[in-house]
Amino acid sequence: MIRETAIIVIVFVLLLVVTFxxxxxxxxxxxxxxxxxxQDQQSWNKSIINKATVWINHTPKIKVTDNSRLVVIDILKGxxxxxxxxxxxxxxxxxxxxxxxxxxxxxxxxxxxxxxLNSKFTSDGQWAQKPEHIDCAxxxxxxxxxxxxxxxxxxxxxDYTWELIKQHIGNDxxxxxxxxxxxxxxVDTIGFICPFLINYGVYFNxxxxxxxxxxxxxxxxxxxxxxxxxxxxxVYKVEKKLPLGLIGWGRGLGWFAIGxxxxxxxxxxxxKYKSTLEESVxxxxxxxxxxxxxxxxxxxxxxxxxxxxxxxxxAMLAWLLINASEINExxxxxYRSSEKAIQYLMSVTRRDGAxxxxxxxxxxxxxxxxxxxxxPFTQGFxxxxxxxxxxxLNKLKLTS
Length: 400
Fold this sequence. Notes:
Blueprint: H1 2-31, H2 41-55, H3 71-77, H4 83-101, H5 107-120, H6 136-145, H7 155-166, E1 184-186, H8 188-203, H9 207-223, E2 233-237, E3 242-247, H10 250-266, H11 274-290, H12 311-324, H13 331-347, E4 358-359, E5 372-373, H14 376-399
Antiparallel strand pairs: 1-2, 2-3, 4-5
Helix pairs in contact: 2-4, 2-14, 4-6, 4-14, 6-7, 6-8, 8-9, 8-10, 10-11, 10-12, 11-12, 12-13, 12-14, 13-14
């Protein structure tokens, strides 16, 4: 009797483990049937917004590991997902929906965003659960972009974020990614903190935070770029100014691009650093366009045509180029390039509105994910892209 019970328990556990492994594989296969059949941008925009509206308060957990077998063990060990990764997923969804409601009154989406904000911040505007890592700055940045809220209400959380960033400043005067890694400067950090620093400085009259954002960008341009191509390494080592990791990692270029272009967009036209940032935007836009694939995408390794296309890189660089089209010298080329990128992103969107084939989370310096699935971060940038692109298109029609 005891033996039979033990066999039943073992079989049950095995079935449970197999179910955890097979269910996501089968589900992913089913959801990819008839992928990319959107005939027009309007229906695509509606579909990706509908998905983001669901996700904003129920954001899918993003895996830390690429492991697809014995997944239940990773879940039990707490190695399946991390809150820091979720911060930039949720931030992008907010930024996307914020871009949409700039031109479209939508009380339903505003209500969903309000529910989200109430879950993340206390009634007096502080973080409900205070973050420990600077990744949260991109989520704090999204508060500045929501057109229907009072930014002042969230000043305690914004002040906390500014103080957290300052705690990560190293001896060289730039911000480290983690306190345990202060001898390295990650390209991700440009996207995480610089737009926040610019907005915080402009809104609360803090020239110190603006100066820090500019220093972070210029130091990376000086120490972390491949000369002659203006594409970043994943990391550079502070001590010897030594580039580390892959030069040409797609999402790395994307992180640098959105950090620079959002900082440029949000800095007042009269500010002394406006032209400095515009020059940086122009350089990175030209670099990006030189590596775009014929189908409109960018590969996860942008320098290799044989590498796999990455939707997250494509969505980030599309945002760069839509906005860089305002720069006269590269305007027409940027516009056409962003148009091709949007067409590609439409072609990899599932019937349910989720954009597919984004590279998973990076494991370490030079260790990149082999998983290409749905990433809410990409979803948010697709919404930013199409709604900003439509406004640009209308502007061009009015001026033609």
